[in-house]
Design brief:
962 residues, 32 helices, NPHP3-like_N, Leucine-rich repeat, LRR (right-handed beta-alpha superhelix), 35% helix, five-stranded parallel sheet, Rossmann fold, 17-stranded mixed sheet
C-alpha cells in the first residue's frame, strides 16, 4: 500500500483480515500540517480496509487531537469509505480514527495482547465500545480478543445491529455476561474462545456441582432467535454456562471443543457438561452440522448422572439417543474420546436410519488399552448402504478381520464417495487382511458403495507383519482412485464377539421431503425457459411459420375419426443446421402461452453435464408434470418415499413409477391435450458406470461392457414409446433429432408404426430459402441501423451468394450474422468481405463455429478417420495426377459406383456414413443412379479438410487405388 506513504513514518507490509481482505497499515503520522491536510483527507477517503498497528512513537499531542476533532470538517469522517477497521493498539491515533469511522464501518476487530492490557487500555476499550453504541449505524461484525470484561460485553449487547460476534477471553465467562448477550436478537454467528491464563490466586476455581447437583437445561423461551452458528472452545465451566444460559432456536452448526482446564481434574465432569450442552442444542430443529470433540476425557460404563427426575445422562448414551430428532442434520462428527464402548457404537449405528439428510459422519475414537478394543462387525456397512442413501463421507471404526458374504439380491446405488475405515481389530499373530481375502473385501466394499472414489486405511508399518499385510491390501486398493495409509499397528487377543449381537434394522429409509429430493435431481437447464437457455436460438418472426403451424396443429387438434387416430409421437427431423432446436423452442413458447405445454427437455452436447446424459431425464419430466398437474404431487411424493433408490433404476422403471403410476391415480380432465417436447436426443452422451480411466471387461473374456450413446438414446426412445402407449398418459410427444441411424431404425420399425404420427422432415417442401432470405434481410437491417450504413448494403447479389452458400441450412446464415455482429476484426463491410472470400492469410476464420459444429458430428461416426477419408474422395480433393479413373466418372458419380470402389466388404458404406445422414444425403441401397449429395456447401468447403495432413490424403489415395 503506497497511498499513505507521504504522511507516515512507518509503512508496514499489507495485512489481511480473517476474511482474506487486504488492510492498509497505519502508524503514527508525521508531518501532517495545514499544507498537506487536504491531501491526507483525499488519500484517506479511498481506504476501505485499515489496520492500525502497535507503535512505540510518542502519542499525538492532546491539543492537536482537540484541534482535529473540533475542526470545521469534524462532521465528515476521515475515512468515509472505510468498511472494516482492525485495531492492534488502542493509542490516541486508534481511538481518534475509530471514533471518526464508526458511522460507516461494518466490521470492527480489536486485537490486544496481554502485555497491552493496562488500565489505560481497559478504559480505552470500554470507551470505544460505548462510542460504538452511540455512533455506529452499520456495524455488523465485532471481534474482540483477550480483553472483554463484563462492562465491555454489557455495552456490546446494546449494539442491536450485530449479526456476528467473536470473543476471545482470558478469564472464565460469567453468567451475567451471557445474559447480556441474549439481547443481540439479530446475532447469527457467535464464537467464544477461552485462552488459558495464569491462575488467579484470588480465584478459588470453578467447582463443578456433584453429579446429583447438575441441572438439566430448562425449557426457557428462545434467546438469540436468529443464531445459526455457535462455536465454543473453552473449558467445562464455560461450556456448561453456554449450554444452560443460551437457548437458540434455529442453529445450523455447533462446534464444541472441550478443553481440559486447571480448575477440575475430573474429566468425566467435563464430558458430562459437554453432553449436557450438546443435548441442549439439539432442541434446534434446523441444526445441520454438529461437531463435538472431547480432549483428555474418558467414559466409564458405571458413570450415571441424574439431571432431572426424568432425564438421565449416562455418558454419551442419552446424547446419542436424542440425535435421532435431528432430521435435517447433514454433518455429524463425534471425535476425541479415548474409546467408546461397543454398546455406545451400536447405539450410534441404530439411529443412523433416522438421520436421513446425513451426508458426512465421523464417529472415531482411540483405545486407551488393547483390552478395550471391541468393534462392530464389518456388516454394519450393509445397513448404512441400505438406510443412508445421501451419505457421501464416512469415517468409522469397524472389525475388518471377518468379511461377511455379500447380501443376496442386493443392488446398491449408494452415493458414498469417501470412506475412512479403521481396521483395528486383529487376532494375535495374524495380519489385518489374511492372504487371499483382499479380493473378497474389495468385492464387498465395492458392491455396497459402487461410487466410492477413495478408501482411506489408517495404518502405519511398525513391524514386518504389518508390511506384509499391506502388500496384500495394496492389491485391493488398486480398485480405487485414492489410498492413504497412516495410523498405528495393533496386536491383541480377539474378544468373544458374535455378529448376532448386532441388531439389523430392516426398515425402509425415510425421505424427509420427496418433492425437494426430486427437485435436487432434475436438469434445470433442460427446461425450455431456463436461465441456461436464455440465449438459445428461436425462430425469427415470420420465419418457419409453416413448420411451426403444422407441429402446433398436430398437438392441439384431435382426430375427427377415433378409429383413424394416429400415434401420440411425432418425429421432427432434418439435416444438421436446419433449425430444429430453434423451431422446438418457438413451439414451446407458443404452447406455454396457450396452456398446453406439459413437459420439455432440451438435450445439448455443449451444455451442463445433466443435459448431456440420461440420468436426470425422467426426474425432470416428473418434476414438470407435478407443476403442470398438481394433482399428481401426492402420488408422486409417495412413490419417492416408498422407493428412495428409484432414481438409480433404469428409465423404464422410473417412467412407470414417477410418471405413469401417479397419472393412473388421478383423474385428468382436459379438452385440449398437453404436449411433451424433447429436443436433441441425438446429442445425449453415454452414461458410464465405472472409472473412466479403466475400460471394464465383463466376466466373459474380452467382452467390453462400456456403454455407447446409441444404447442410452434408444433407452430414452423406448421409455417415451411405452408412455405414449399407456392409456393413462394424456400427452402427445414431439421428438426432434438428426436423422442418425438409431432414430431411422426406431421410427421406421414396422412393428412400431402404430405408435407414431407421420414424420415431419425439414426439407425443401417448407421453402427454407424464403425464410433464410427474410432472416438475412432483417438482421442486416439491424446492423445497418446500428452502424448508420446505407440502405444499399449489402447488395441483392451478395444476399443471393449467401443464400446459395446456405444450401437451405439456417446454421450458415446464423453463423454469418454472428460473425459480423460479434467480431472485432473490422467493420461490417470488411467482415462481410472476409465471409465471402475467407482469406486464410489473415489468420481469421469466420466459420470456426461452423467447423466445430461439423467436427462434432464427424466425431459421432463409429470411425471418424475413415469417414473423413471417404469425404475427401467424395469431395474430389485428391493428390495431383492420381486416381484418374475415379475422376473420369464425372463430378457426381452414383453412390452405387462409389461404394463399389471404396468398400472392402459389403456394408462398409452404411458403417462409415450411417451416422452422417444429417450432413450427407445417402441414397437407398437399391438406388443405382443417385449420387451422394452434401446438404451443406459450407461443409464441402469447410476448413476441416485443411486440418488433415498430406499423410492422411496419401492414405486415402492408396485406399482408393487398391
Amino acid at each position: 500500500m503506497t497511498s499513505l506513504k507521504p504522511f507516515f513514518g512507518l509503512i508496514l507490509p499489507s495485512h489481511k483480515d480473517r476474511h482474506g481482505r487486504l488492510l492498509e497499515p497505519l502508524t503514527y503520522p508525521h508531518g501532517i500540517s495545514s499544507e498537506n491536510w487536504e491531501r491526507f483527507k483525499l488519500y484517506s477517503s479511498r481506504t476501505k480496509h485499515l489496520v492500525i498497528t502497535l507503535d512505540e512513537s510518542p502519542s499525538i499531542h492532546p491539543p492537536w487531537l482537540l484541534y482535529l476533532s473540533k475542526s470545521s470538517e469534524h462532521h465528515a469522517p476521515l475515512f468515509p469509505a472505510l468498511q472494516s477497521l482492525h485495531l492492534m493498539s488502542l493509542n490516541d491515533l486508534a481511538i481518534f480514527t475509530a471514533y471518526s469511522a464508526l458511522p460507516t464501518i461494518h466490521s470492527l476487530r480489536v486485537e490486544l495482547g496481554v502485555v497491552t492490557m493496562g488500565q489505560h487500555t481497559k478504559d480505552a476499550c470500554l470507551a470505544l465500545v460505548i462510542s460504538a453504541r452511540e455512533r455506529a449505524r452499520n456495524l455488523k461484525d465485532v471481534e474482540i480478543t483477550h480483553f472483554p470484561n463484563c462492562e465491555v460485553i454489557s455495552s456490546l449487547s446494546t449494539l442491536q445491529s450485530l449479526t456476528s460476534l467473536s470473543l476471545t477471553i482470558s478469564n472464565a465467562m460469567t453468567a451475567d455476561s451471557l445474559k447480556c448477550l441474549e439481547q443481540l436478537t439479530l446475532l447469527e454467528y457467535l464464537n467464544i474462545r477461552q485462552k488459558h491464563a495464569p491462575h488467579d490466586p484470588q480465584d478459588n476455581g470453578f467447582q463443578f456441582p456433584s453429579p446429583s447437583g447438575l441441572a438439566a437445561p430448562t425449557s426457557q423461551a428462545s434467546s438469540l432467535p436468529n443464531l445459526r452458528i455457535l462455536v465454543v472452545e473453552a473449558p467445562g465451566k464455560t461450556q456448561f454456562l453456554v449450554a444452560t444460559h443460551l437457548s437458540p432456536r434455529f442453529l445450523e452448526t455447533v462446534r464444541m471443543n472441550v478443553i481440559n482446564d486447571d480448575f477440575d481434574d475430573d474429566c468425566r465432569h467435563i464430558a458430562l457438561v459437554s453432553f449436557s450442552a450438546a443435548a441442549h442444542m439439539k432442541r434446534s430443529k434446523q441444526l445441520n452440522s454438529l461437531i463435538i470433540r472431547w480432549d483428555n476425557a474418558s467414559f466409564k460404563p458405571e458413570t450415571s448422572v441424574t439431571l432431572q427426575s426424568n432425564v438421565e445422562y449416562t455418558d454419551p448414551k442419552h446424547f446419542l439417543t436424542n440425535l435421532s430428532s435431528l432430521r435435517n442434520i447433514t454433518q455429524l462428527k463425534v471425535l476425541g474420546v479415548r474409546w467408546f464402548p461397543l454398546d455406545i457404537v451400536l447405539r450410534m449405528l441404530k439411529i443412523l436410519p433416522s438421520l436421513q439428510s446425513l451426508k458426512e459422519l465421523q464417529f472415531l475414537s482411540q483405545p486407551a488399552t488393547m483390552d478395550e478394543l471391541i468393534l462392530p462387525p464389518l456388516s454394519a456397512l450393509e445397513d448404512i448402504a441400505r438406510h443412508n442413501p445421501l451419505l457421501e463421507v464416512l469415517s468409522i471404526n469397524l472389525d475388518t478381520s471377518i468379511i461377511p458374504p455379500f447380501p443376496n439380491h442386493f443392488i446398491s446405488t449408494h452415493n458414498l464417495r469417501v470412506m475412512c475405515l479403521f481396521p483395528f481389530k486383529l487376532r494375535r499373530g495374524t495380519t489385518p487382511f489374511p492372504k487371499g481375502e483382499t479380493s473378497r473385501l474389495a468385492h464387498y466394499i465395492d458392491g455396497l458403495f459402487p461410487k466410492l472414489e477413495s478408501v482411506t486405511k489408517h495404518w502405519s508399518e511398525t513391524s514386518k507383519k504389518a508390511y506384509d499385510a499391506w502388500v496384500e491390501v495394496g492389491k485391493m486398493l488398486v480398485c480405487y482412485d485414492v489410498a492413504i495409509i497412516n495410523a498405528t499397528w495393533c496386536e491383541f487377543d480377539a474378544r468373544d464377539f458374535s455378529v448376532k449381537e448386532f441388531n439389523v434394522i430392516n426398515e425402509a429409509p425415510h425421505v424427509a421431503d420427496p418433492l425437494n429430493d426430486l427437485a435436487s435431481r432434475i436438469a434445470a437447464g433442460a427446461l425450455h425457459d431456463s436461465d441456461e437457455r436464455c440465449d438459445a436460438a428461436k425462430c425469427h418472426p415470420e420465419t418457419r411459420v409453416a413448420v411451426q403451424g403444422e407441429i402446433y396443429s398436430w398437438i392441439v387438434h384431435s382426430d375427427p375419426d377415433p378409429a383413424q387416430k394416429m400415434g401420440k409421437i411425432k418425429w421432427v427431423t432434418g439435416p444438421a443446421g436446419t433449425g430444429k432446436s430453434a423451431i422446438m423452442g418457438s413451439v414451446a413458447d407458443t404452447c406455454k402461452q396457450n396452456g398446453v405445454l406439459a413437459v420439455t427437455f432440451f438435450f445439448a452436447s455443449y451444455a451442463s453435464p445433466d443435459r448431456r446424459r440420461k440420468t436426470a431425464f425422467i426426474p425432470t419430466l416428473a418434476y414438470q408434470l407435478a407443476e403442470h398437474l398438481p394433482a399428481v404431487k401426492d402420488p408422486l411424493a409417495q412413490a419417492i418415499r416408498d422407493r428412495p433408490l428409484l432414481f438409480k433404476k433404469n428409465l423404464r422403471v422410473q417412467m412407470e413409477a414417477l410418471i405413469l403410476t401417479p397419472l393412473r391415480q388421478v383423474a385428468i380432465e382436459s379438452k385440449v391435450p398437453g404436449v411433451v417436447l424433447i429436443d436433441g436426443v441425438d446429442e445425449c452422451e453415454a452414461e458410464q458406470y465405472f472409472d473412466s480411466h479403466v475400460t471394464p471387461v465383463s466376466p466373459r473374456a474380452g467382452e467390453s461392457i462400456e456403454r455407447t450413446k446409441d444404447r442410452d438414446q434408444l433407452e430414452i426412445l423406448e421409455a417415451l414409446r411405452e408412455a405414449a402407449l399407456d392409456p393413462a398418459f394424456p400427452f402427445r410427444i414431439v421428438i426432434a433429432s438428426r436423422p442418425e441411424r438409431i432414430f431411422r431404425e426406431f421410427f421406421n420399425n414396422e412393428s412400431h408404426k402404430s405408435s407414431f404420427a407421420p414424420t415431419l422432415t425439414l426439407d425443401e417442401k417448407y421453402n427454407p430459402n424464403a425464410d433464410i432470405i427474410l432472416f438475412l434481410q432483417a438482421k442486416f437491417g439491424e446492423i445497418r441501423r446500428r452502424y448508420n450504413l446505407g440502405l444499399s448494403w449489402p447488395s441483392p447479389e451478395i444476399l443471393t451468394v449467401l443464400l446459395d452458400q446456405a444450401s437451405g441450412q439456417f446454421i450458415y446464415a446464423a453463423t454469418v450474422i454472428r460473425y459480423i455482429t460479434t467480431s472485432r476484426h473490422g467493420n461490417p463491410h470488411t467482415l462481410l468481405d472476409q465471409v465471402l472470400k475467407v482469406k486464410p492469410s489473415l489468420g481469421i476464420n469466420p466459420f470456426s463455429h461452423l467447423d466445430g459444429f461439423y467436427t462434432h458430428i464427424l466425431q459421432s461416426a463409429p470411425n471418424p478417420i475413415l469417414a473423413v477419408k471417404w469425404l475427401w474422395i467424395l469431395k474430389g480433393d485428391l493428390p495431383p495426377g492420381g486416381l484418374n479413373f475415379f475422376m473420369s466418372m464425372g463430378s457426381n458419380p452414383a453412390a452405387f459406383l462409389v461404394n463399389l470402389l471404396l468398400q472392402t466388404d459389403d456394408g462398409d458404406a452404411e458403417y462409415v456414413l450411417g451416422d452422417l445422414h444429417s450432413l450427407i444425403d445417402v441414397p437407398p441401397s437399391d438406388d443405382f443412379d443417385t449420387p451422394y449429395r452434401p446438404y451443406h456447401k459450407s461443409f464441402v468447403q469447410s476448413s476441416f479438410g485443411a486440418g488433415f495432413s498430406i499423410s492422411v490424403r496419401t492414405k486415402v489415395y492408396r485406399h482408393a487405388v487398391r
